[in-house]
Amino acid sequence: MNVHVRLFAAAAEACGKEQIEVSIEHRAPHTIADVRDAIAAAYPMLEEILRRAWFAVNEEYATHDVTIQEKDRIAIIPPVSGGSQPQSLRDTTWPDLLITRDILSVNAMYDHVLRAAAGAVVLFSGTVREFTRGRQTDYLEYEAYEEMALEKMRAVKNACVDRWPDAHVALWHRVGRLALTETSVLIGVSTPHRKDAFAAGQFAIDTLKRTVPIWKKEFFSDGQVEWVGPDGPWNPTSDQEGDPHATS
C-alpha cells in the first residue's frame, strides 16, 4: 500500500518537502506504526523528529496502533509551539475560531465576546517577546496545519463550554512573520462571574498550546534559527492542565 504523508514545520524543513510517499509491503491491517517505520527507513533525516512527533489521521491525533486506509489523510505532527481577509474592528461577522495572517485586534476580540449576560470579560494576548532563555529574538514565524488546527481549536472551545456552560469563548491565532510585541494568539472569554472567566481563559490557552498544531520558528539576533517545542515529552491527547512549554 502506498501512503501519502503531509509534513509541517521542522519535519518539512528537514525533508525539504511538504509531502512524501512511502510504501508498506506486508498485508493489512496497516497501522501508524507501519507508516512510521517506512518513513524512518526511507527518510533517515526525519529519524530524530519521529522520536518525539505524533501522527494525525484525518485531522485527529493517532497513536501507533491506529489502523489506516489508503485514502486516509495522514500527517506528521512535530511538537507544537505552543488566512482570512481583513475585517473591521466592529465587524459582527468575526468568527469564534480564526487562523489568519492579519494583525489581531484586542478591541475586536473584546467586542466579539462582550454580551449583556456577561459580568466579566477576560482576554489573553500572547505576544512576541524579545528574550527566550536568555537569547535575543529578532522575529518569529508561525505555521499551522490549518484544517486540523481549527478543529482542535473547536475542541478547546467546546471543552470550555462543557466546564463553564455560561461561557462565550473565542480563539484567534496568527500565522506568518511576527515582529516583537505583536500578538500571536488572542483568547476571549465572557461569563456572568469573574472567577469562571479567569478559569476558562487559563484552561483555553493551556489546552490550545498543548493540542493545536501550530508551530513557532524563532529567529535569534545571533543568526541562529530554531523550531520551538517542549523540552520534555509531549502528549497532545493527555488531559493534563497547565502549560508545559509556554511559547508566547
UniProtKB/TrEMBL annotation:
Domain of life where this protein originates: Bacteria
- InterPro entries given for it? Beta-grasp_dom_sf, MoaE_sf, Mopterin_biosynth_MoaE, Mopterin_synth/thiamin_S_b, ThiS/MoaD-like
Q: A Pfam family in this protein? A: ThiS
Disordered: annotated span? 226-248
GO BP field: Mo-molybdopterin cofactor biosynthetic process
- Please state what the protein is called: Molybdopterin converting factor
**Taxonomy-wise, where does this protein's organism fall, top ranks first?**
Bacteria, Bacillati, Bacillota, Bacilli, Bacillales
